Every structure is written in structure tokens, then in C-alpha cells.
Amino acid sequence: MCILSVLTLCMATIAEPTYSGSVAALLHKNCAGCHRSGEVGPFPLISYEDARKRAGFIAKQVRAKKMPPWKAEAGHGEFFDERRLTEAEISTLEAWAAAGAPRGDASAEPAVPTFTDGWQLGKPDLIVRMPAAFTIPADGRDIYQIFVMPSGLTETRTVAAIEFRPGNRRVVHHAIAIVDSTGTARRRDAATPEPGYPTFGGFGILPTGFLGGWAPGNLPHRLQEGMGRELPGGADIVVQIHYHPTGKPESDRSELGLYFTPKPAAKLVRNLPLVSRDIDIPAGESAYKRMVRFTTPEQLTVVGIMPHMHLLGREMKTRAIKPDGSEIPLVWIRDWDFNWQDTYLYRKPITVPAGTRFEVDAVYDNSAANPRNPQSPPKRVVWGEQTENEMCVCFMAVVTKDNAAAVKLRQEFFKQLVTPSMILRFLGGD
Ligand code: HEC
Q1: What CATH architecture does domain 268-427 belong to?
Q2: Residues near ligand 1 with C-beta < 6 Å?
Q3: What is the pTM of this model?
Q4: 189: which residues sit within 8 A by CB, 6+ positions away?
């Protein structure tokens, strides 16, 4: 062996990452939260053995940015709990797999992380639960079930944070909590024998308020001081839970903790759905585009954002164009996945002046080449809440200067975005 090749070999050995040197810490920090026993990840990534036997698969998934699951593109909004690996981290995992997943010095391995399973923000002011355990069969389609959890409150409170705690983390894929002050969800629940009632892409009712969403990996965060979401006395808390069958029968009884503001919040966080109901996607169309344009009549502070489409959705990009023409990117989901619908909370709320135009641009793929297409062969697709329907909504959580501004915003929302057919449909209780 000539000197040169020995040298190259040495250098390669030095540069080669090992499990104990860098990989273990990387996996514990970015993956183990979901990939450990009793969690949503399909296998643990805790020990050397866990990682070694999947080294190639791990490298492939992280390079393809499939894992860790985080759909929001960098540079389009800065959010809490971002799950994103750096280019250097991805290269480390690739180099490690390519080198045959070396362990390194086992005695220098970092300790297995400990996770706190209790309420992350301390004891909630109010805890509501599913009325009874819900059974998820071993296999079959994913289930979207709506559960009504009466608040039992007689007075209006404002909510600073919610914390959703899945009863069974293996099956719960995401949850969205809304408010119903009309009793409609209760009536729908009473009409089905099992706990709750089934839906797909919505609630089957028109929510009167919005509390927030949860997906694996999300941590609870309090709204900025002085801000809160309204929970009227007597209202029901209504939670949609998405269950993914695991291969064996499972049961879940999840709960939701609410943290109230110490005194009624002066700045109410409201839901502004940037919605286009005019969806009509021809069968086979692979890049169907929908857009929403909304100009706010009032100054707004955007606290959070939640893009929503169904299975044909491929992309959604939302931005704000200020009256001076400058642009603020709000969120860009470049590779939409119905399974990972996060509610994105801005690290720093974004305030824009009156006259700012919000632009939502969405793309759908209704071709046979889309593996997620629920219809084979593809069929024409219109707006609706079922699996074979589509939606185009970007929910924004916003705060207005005061109540009068909120009234104006609401009027403008109806003027610019709500079509008569939409109102009729909601009145029909569909
Ligand atoms: C927020 C939860 C979460 C985090 C964090 C996470 N995973 Fe996953 N992972 C999942 C779930 C759930 C699945 C099952 C497939 C799915 O639902 O997308 C999965 C699947 C996988 C798969 C198999 C993919 C397949 O198609 O079967 C690999 C490999 C993987 N994860 C590796 C990782 C690695 C490496 C990390 C950290 C860099 C990571 N995951 C972080 C939840 C997570």
C-alpha cells in the first residue's frame, strides 16, 4: 500500500462519524421524542442497535426530508418547535450509514434521554376528557372522529394555552380543538351509537370558536400576555382526533388541558379562514391551481397559521403583501401531507397594516400518478368534507386592535370570501 492511500484511509477514518461521537446525540434530540416505546413512531431510535439496523433507511429518509416530519419550508415563517435537520446533520447521518454505521467508543455514548410525560405547562385550570374510551380496529382506513367535551363553565373565560394529551400515542396522529356554542355537535354525537361521530376533513358543524391543534412533536405554548381565545360559558369543547390503525386493536381516551388567562384577555385571538370554496378539479388534472386573495381593512397581528387541504393537495403558499408592496412570507408547504397538518405558531407574532393583501396559492394533483389519490380511476372533485372531496383553507389566528376592528374584519371576510352557496350549506347543517 503506498503512503498516499494509507493517508487517505486515515483521514477518512478521522472524518467518519460514529454513533457514540455524534449520531446518538443527533437521533436522541431530533427523533427519539416520537421514536420510542409508546409513541407514534413505528420503531424506537434509542439504542445503537435500533439505529444500526436502519442506518441506510434513516439516511434516505432524512435526505428526502421525510423525517423528521416538518412540512414548513425554511425562510417562510419562523415557528415554535421546528423540526428540521441542518445540511451538516443530514450529511453526518449519510456518512455514518455509508461507513457501515460504526459504533465508536461505546463507553462514551450519551445517556438515553428522559422525557417528562406530565402536563408540560403545569396543572391546567380545566381538564376535559373524551366521554369514554374509543376503539380503533387493527386495520382499515384512518379514522377521523369528533368528540364533544362539555366545558362545564358557566362564565366566559379566555384561554392562554391548551395542551392535548393523547390517551394512546401509538394511534393518535393529530387533534384539532374548536368551540361549539350551539349544541349542534352534541346532537350529532347523540345520533351515533359510539363515542363521538365520524368525519374526515372538517367537523360537520360550523365552529363558533377555535382553540388550537396538536400533532406529535408539538409542545404547548402560552399566547403573548394580554392575548387569549374566547371560551363562552356553557360552550362545548369539540375535538377532532385523527387515528391511524397500528395493526392491532387499540383503544384511546385522550384529554385536553386548558390554561386560562389570569384576567379576561383584552386582545382576543380570532380565526380568519382564508378560504376558496370554488374547487372543481377535473379527473386526471395534475396541477390544478386555486388561489385566495383577501385585503384586510384593519391592522392585524398574525399569531399562527394552519394550511388545510385533503389528499390531493400538493402545495400551499401564503404571503402578505403590504400596501407599500413589500412582501412577508407567512408559510410555504411545498410537499403537503394530510398526515402532518401542523398548527404553526409564530415565534414572534407578525403585525401588518390595514390594506395588506393576503395571498394563498394552492396546487392539487388529481392524476392517477398521485399515490394518495383516494379515487382510482380519478374522478372530478369538488369542495366538501369527505375523503373524496377537497378543501382550500388557510386558517390564520389573528388579533385586531379592538372589537370594532374585529367587526369590520368580519364584514370584510363575508364580503370578499363568503359566497351565498357557502352560507346556505352551513345553514343546512351539512
Ligand atoms: C414528530 C414525530 C416524529 C419525529 C420527530 C421523527 N419521526 Fe420518524 N416517523 C414518525 C412516524 C409517525 C412515522 C410513520 C410514517 C409516517 O407517519 O410518516 C415515522 C417513520 C419513520 C421512518 C420510516 C419511514 C417509512 O416510510 O416507513 C424512518 C426511517 C424514520 N421515521 C426516521 C426518523 C428519523 C431518523 C428521525 C429524526 C431525524 C425521525 N424519524 C423523527 C414520526 C416521527
Answers
A1: Sandwich (2.60)
A2: 30-31, 33-35, 40-42, 54, 57-58, 61-62, 67-69, 83, 85, 216-217, 339
A3: 0.88
A4: 146, 147, 148, 195, 196, 197
